[in-house]
Design brief:
The complex is a heterodimer of chains A (481) and B (422).
Chain A (H helix, E strand, L loop, with lengths): L9 H7 L10 H10 L7 H4 L7 H9 L3 H11 L3 H7 L6 H4 L12 H14 L14 E5 L3 H12 L3 E5 L8 H4 L8 H12 L4 E4 L10 H7 L2 E4 L5 E2 L12 E3 H11 L9 E5 L3 H12 L4 E5 L11 H9 L3 E3 L2 E9 L2 E15 L5 E13 L2 E4 L3 E2 L2 H6 L4 E2 L2 E2 L12 E3 L2 H4 L4 H19 L1 H4 L4 H7 L21
Parallel strand pairs in A: 1-2, 1-4, 2-3, 4-17, 6-13, 7-8, 7-13, 8-9
Antiparallel strand pairs in A: 5-14, 10-11, 11-12, 15-16
Helix pairs in contact in A: 2-4, 4-5, 4-8, 5-8, 6-8, 9-18, 13-14, 14-15, 18-20
Chain B lengths: L5 E3 L2 E3 L3 E3 L8 H10 L3 E8 L9 E6 L2 E8 L8 H14 L4 E7 L4 H12 L5 E5 L13 H4 L2 H14 L4 E4 L8 H10 L3 E4 L3 E3 L21 E4 L4 H13 L8 E4 L5 H9 L2 E6 L1 H6 L4 H15 L27 E5 L9 H9 L4 E4 L6 E4 L9 H5 L6 E5 L9 H6 L8
Parallel strand pairs in B: 3-4, 3-14, 4-7, 7-8, 8-9, 9-10, 10-13, 13-14
Antiparallel strand pairs in B: 1-2, 5-6, 6-12, 11-12, 15-18, 16-17
Bound molecules: flavin-adenine dinucleotide, flavin mononucleotide (FMN) and iron/sulfur cluster (3 copies).
One iron/sulfur cluster (SF4) binds next to helix 3 and helix 4 of chain A.
Chain lengths: 481, 422
Amino acid sequence: MSISNNRLPAEEFEKNFSDIHPPFETKEAALVEANRCLFCYDAPCTKSCPTGINVPKFIKQITTDNIKGSATTIFLSNIFGGGCSRVCPVEKLCEGACVFNLMHEQPIAIAKLQRYSTEDAIEDKWKLFERKPSTGKKVAVVGAGPAGLSCAHVLSREGIDITVFEKESKGGGLMTYGIAAYKVTPEFCNDEVDFITSLGGIEIKYNHELGKDISLEQLQQQYDAVFLGIGVGLANQLNIPGEDLAGVEDAIDFIYHIRDKGYSNVPVGDRVIVIGMGMTAIDAATQAKRLGAKEVTMVYRRSESEKGCTQVELDIARLDGCKIVWLAAPKEIVGNDGKLTALVCDVMKLGAPDYSGKPAPIPTGDTITIEADMVIKATGQKPFEDLVSYYGLENKKGKILSKENHATNLSKIFAGGDCVNGGKEVVDAVQAGKEAAAAIIQHLTPAFSKGEGAEQNAMSVITASTVDRDSSPLSFGEGQG
Amino acid sequence: MADISANFLGIKSPNPYWLASAPPTDKKYNVLRAFEAGWGGVVWKTLGSQVKNVSSRYSAVNFNNTRVMGFNNIELISDRPLDINLKEIEECVRLFPDRAMIVSLMADNSREKWHELIKQVEDTGAHGLELNFGCPHGMTERGMGATVGQDPAIAKMVVEWVMEAAHIPVITKLTPNVHSVVPTGKACVEGGTSALSLINTIQSVTGIDLDTFVPNPYVAGKSVFGGYCGPAVKPIALKMLATISQDETTRKVPISGIGGISTWKDAAEFMLLGATTVQVCTAAMKYGFRIIEDMCDGLNNWMDEKGFKTIDDFVGKSVSTLTHWEDLDINYHHVANINQDKCIHCGLCYIACEDASHQSISLTYGKPYNTYAIKEEECVGCNLCQLICPVEDCITMVVQRKGDDYLNWKEFQERGLPLNDH
Ligand SMILES: Cc1cc2nc3c(=O)[nH]c(=O)nc-3n(C[C@H](O)[C@H](O)[C@H](O)COP(=O)(O)OP(=O)(O)OC[C@H]3O[C@@H](n4cnc5c(N)ncnc54)[C@H](O)[C@@H]3O)c2cc1C
Ligand SMILES: Cc1cc2nc3c(=O)[nH]c(=O)nc-3n(C[C@H](O)[C@H](O)[C@H](O)COP(=O)(O)O)c2cc1C
Ligand code: SF4
Ligand code: SF4
Ligand code: SF4
């Protein structure tokens, strides 16, 4: 047993990491699907999109050959509409709510159509938005991830000058650094960031880390407002013996290396164990297999009904040949000569619900030992607790506490995305960025904060005008949670 | 098994389906294939003076994913030499004696030309003639086709010329490019025609290319009005057919129905409004002759189900149900009802009634699914929601009469009954 790289021929890597949701091959294929859509009123799919994309409208626009309009409809609600069409767990969002499900028919392929409408716009940097004349206001955004750039785009459209501080050398956040390579390519992520900034008025300062290169006080002094979209960073520790043995890796690092170093340069074991059952765990397991690992076993301390990933994702892992051991909690990693050789797990059973509302796993007293040469930890990430506490931001275990309008306890400082919600999806971060932008505009612009309906006015900058609003006046704000 | 054979003025065919005079019937090759496929008869592509066609010739209207909802052409009558056509007609009659062979004619505007053409065609052994008074493009510029059909006096005169020479049944094909088909139809019957057929194509512009700004079909940067047919024209054809079946003079002769027929159901509808045979063009041009199989089979099964032994049992059966608005029963009332178990919450009924009808559907907000229900006291029973609902039988109309007795508008006024107050 050994950990080694370059396990497969180049063609096989290409095949294994090719697009998992391929686009429509022809315009006709897209039209057949688009024409199936019923153009529902107050559409369930729109209500189930956290960013409230007007799905029936953008699909109708495909059928009328108005791709420019279709792309605009999508981007108005979600500037990461292209990326989201590739990474959203649509089966539990828009497509999961499509009325066709109620007829036991295939739901409309909303994400695939969304990709169809946004692909050229992103690649060719279509000029779909016009910046309003500069207001002279300046806002700092920390973190060039989905939350930060979504906030930046809305604000810049309104004539506010944006400076983004990003600690890494590329934008996109976990979209670029975290999400599996068969969902989005690094080139696409690059294009998407360039498309967003092509609006103008958004300057990204890479390799600028809050807490190291700049301080929050400086930003507070130099800018009219600050938005924090720093995400969650550090991987949770298992806190069990043997965690420091060679061969134990963090899922985010593992996934990032696949994106960064190229498939053939990422070492993987013969027998790999992935701990966890969320999206990250699935991505790590399937990609380990696709890199050429002989055996991949996923262990999860609860049972299938409590899994964090969706059924579709679990099916992908199963189709890739990953083994799954339910009700097994890591107890100890054992090794030889500093290298790991096996993982020992407690066999669990389900008890009464715990704080999370899920049934608590309780040890049965039995253990199992699974041989391995590599263990990938995918048990969630930990927010930047030290950083936010240092600046006096109210937080709960590092998750920044924000009020309904995304304001924090500190003056002028707003926050949203993973750093507030503790880690959800890209689409939730985009919505948080949008909402925070509306709140910042209200905070900055006297015209918006005076008189009746001020809130509605500010909100209107992030609500596509034609979204049906009579039943859900702030429809963009729903869908969280 | 019902008997679906037709007897049209003694012209027999194993089924009521004829191919209309058009490209599918313009040569022996096609016609033999059609007979082999099972078509009951053909109306041979119109013969007359020598013409030449242009390209392109066709254009279409697509709707959502359906191609050729409506079809448009600027073709003229047969552009093949007359002697070849005549020889081929003779061969087809000889090879398939049990099928109807009607030949469509459009002679130049003189009695001699018509007489000459009729004689030549009768020599082939054809069973009947169809006079093309309907072609709406090209031929009209030469004073033929629809130009004849649009003027009852001229139409009657030409029919009289024809009847002087013809020994076989004569069907006159009417143009729909008139306010009413009845005046020409009447004139032709008075002129002696043995039967009528309708409709020919409807003048149209199917669309304009938004890049070149030239309408289609495109001929070297120009276009002309074409003739429209296919499924899109069926409702218009049915209405025109009904008026011919209602009129005292025209209903005395048999009718061959044409216009947008694609299935046995379409055919049954034409027959219920008085057509003894039906003719098909666009559907055969779109799918080929093989559609005849289900057209026969479906009609047969439907007739068995309804207990009709022959087509005479139902030809014209629906004509008397078309009445005057003033005779409709105002006491008849029905309201929509939504089957909540079938409803998929698409909201289409709601927005239709809200924006275009009577605000009679309530919306109860739900996430992601709203609940929709009918406000019975508001519903006027217009059917809009039922027509729009994508789920079969999800919305049904439930009868709730306003009174037991029949009450028409005149009576309603006489009794001084109240009108709507909102
Ligand atoms: C492995 C994995 C797979 C995932 N798969 C999916 C998926 O398939 N679909 C999906 O919708 N979501 C997925 N997610 C979740 C998704 O990536 C996040 O919810 C989303 O990226 C959050 O956006 P954000 O802007 O809040 O944070 P991030 O994307 O984390 O962006 C934060 C940005 O801030 C920068 N930053 C952090 N600290 C500082 C600092 N001190 N100074 C300056 N910059 C800083 C970071 O470098 C980063 O660029 C996945 C996550 C992981 C980890
Ligand atoms: C390409 C084309 C050519 C036609 N040529 C003739 C013709 O020569 N003579 C004629 O009487 N009708 C002609 N028609 C009209 C058809 O016979 C028929 O009346 C009309 O198409 C309506 O039927 P449909 O809806 O089944 O196509 C033609 C129609 C088409 C589409
Ligand atoms: S629910 Fe489905 S059918 Fe209805 S608008 Fe959305 S995608 Fe179209
Ligand atoms: S039948 Fe007409 S009025 Fe009645 S609910 Fe339906 S759409 Fe509204
Ligand atoms: S149109 Fe039909 S399916 Fe759609 S909401 Fe109305 S009743 Fe339900």
